[in-house]
Amino acid sequence: MGSYTVMWIDTHCHLDAPELGADHALALDLRQRAATLGVGLCVIPAVQRANFDTVRQLAHRTGDAYALGIHPLCVPQATEADLEALDAALGAHSDDPRLVAVGEIGLDFFVPALCTPGMRERQAFFYRAQLRLARTHALPVIVHVRRSADQLLKHLRELPTDGGIAHAFNGSEQQAQAFLELGFKLGFGGAVTFEPARQLRRLAAGLPLSALVLETDAPDIPPQWLYATAAERAAGQAQGLNSPAELPRIGEVVAGLRSMATDALMQATTANALTALPRLAALLATP
Question: DSSP 3-state assignment of 97?
């Protein structure tokens, strides 16, 4: 893999999200704060055709990486022309070292509107089409897994890719092992910081160290210290804004669960991220 700089890598961060400012000023401020805390690299995944250029330009502006794909939540509005545009964008930017994956793609069987038979079929069509594009362009994938692990795995076995990351993994130990056997790493973020998340914390503690990468999914999935309950929000308490700056503290929690030094976890998750998304290596290379 060569020589590279060890740092915190946020493998999933939506810096282009509207909550972080339409002009990206807030996103840039938060990204700079994260950098001062040791977050050296973020991966910014697209969610729809409309933000393909946005995430690419933002990644170049911040010195980060990006992925291009159509999120399952955006499938109801997506068209086959969007898949053609994705294919064209992946080809046009194939030499861009900051393009590291096809993503965020996947299946979502949590949102009721996406769970009708017709919508499940539509999600599968877009997911499989994007797996084929990942194979064509020799890129790993970043997959959205929400109550859909078994179906995601079924399609991956039929259309295997160059591995990737199962984002915000929250499945069973058996499902975790199945992703690992297909060459995937598992993304852990803010959800693991909640003490009631016992199964997820058991996985973070007990899976092989080589399985883990860290993420924030900012501005979504805030860690426990930023979370405000519905009752607290009703009483006027604001929800804290999740950002890549929270990644080192999330890393501390995971290191604590594994009874290991935080620096050792940072070193391991850096190596794991480079294995999952090999193009990151060029961005971290040292002379």
Answer: coil
Topology classification of domain 9-277: TIM Barrel (3.20.20)
The domain locations on the chain are 9-277
For 170, residues 6+ apart whose C-beta sits below 8 A from its C-beta are 145, 146, 191, 199, 200
Q: Report CA 251 to chain centroid distance, whole Å.
A: 15
Let me know: does 126 contact 72? Beta carbons within 8 Å: yes
pLDDT digit string (tens) for 28-45?
A: 999 999 999 999 999 999
Question: 66 - beta bridge partners?
Answer: 44, 99
pLDDT per residue as tens digits for the range 229-248: 888 888 888 888 999 999 99
**Nearest CA among 103, 99, 141 for reference residue 276:** 141
- Detail the DSSP E strand segments found in the chain: 8-10, 39-45, 65-68, 99-108, 141-146, 164-167, 184-188, 212-214
Reduced to 3 states (helix: H, G, I; strand: E, B; else coil), residue 60 is helix
Q: 69: closest CA among 103, 43, 98?
A: 103
138: nearest Cα among 169, 99, 168:
99
